[in-house]
Amino acid sequence: MIPRFTRSFLWLGIAFALSSCSDDSDVDAALLNERWKLAEVEGDDIRLSSFSFDRQSYIQFVASDSKLQGLSACDEIGGQFSLDAGSKTFTITQITVKPGSCSSPVFGVRYLAALLRTARYEVNNRELRLYDATQSTDPILTFRAEE
């Protein structure tokens, strides 16, 4: 028979383990169930672009098949992603671009190049930040959840 004191700590340990698991899945759910509007590319605010179609850029991650979809100005983008919620590692591969009726002269190219450099992520207050592998504290891309 397990002493009452030991059982209390055992239950406390199980509760802690379960709560920490749910935190990771909440982060995944926040990341995967949103349409993310592009807000910044390497620190530059997308709203300052003189090319109005840049402000339509977004990304969405589809959990069922680890695919991404979105827009870079008027160009449709797609690709594959993989993530590890525990370590917050995140990689994007095989980006495809289907040209639309316009093409972003500056932000679009930088946006797509930055996506391929993504190594980790952070979701906080309905904001998604993607970072490269340099361990910089500055995100390479910042998105906000679409309202």
What about the largest sheet?
Answer: 9 strands, antiparallel
Count the DSSP helices: 2
Average of the residue pLDDT scores:
80
Indicate the percent of residues in helices: 25-40%
Secondary-structure-based class equals alpha+beta
The dominant shape is globular
Q: What is the tally of beta strands?
A: 9
Keywords:
single chain, 147 residues, alpha+beta, nine-stranded antiparallel β-sheet, 2 helices, 9 strands, 27% helix, globular
Q: What do these coordinates show?
A:
- It is a single chain.
- Helices cover 27% and strands 37% of the residues.
- It has 147 residues and is of the alpha+beta class.
- Strands 1, 2, 3, 4, 5, 6, 7, 8 and 9 form a nine-stranded antiparallel β-sheet that branches.
- The protein is globular, with a radius of gyration of 19 Å.
- It starts with a helix and ends with a strand.
Structure described in brief:
The chain has 147 residues and is of the alpha+beta class.
Topology:
Elements: H1 4-32, E1 35-41, E2 44-45, E3 58-62, E4 67-72, E5 75-84, E6 89-98, H2 107-116, E7 120-124, E8 127-131, E9 141-145
Antiparallel strand pairs: 1-2, 1-3, 1-9, 3-4, 4-5, 5-6, 7-8, 8-9
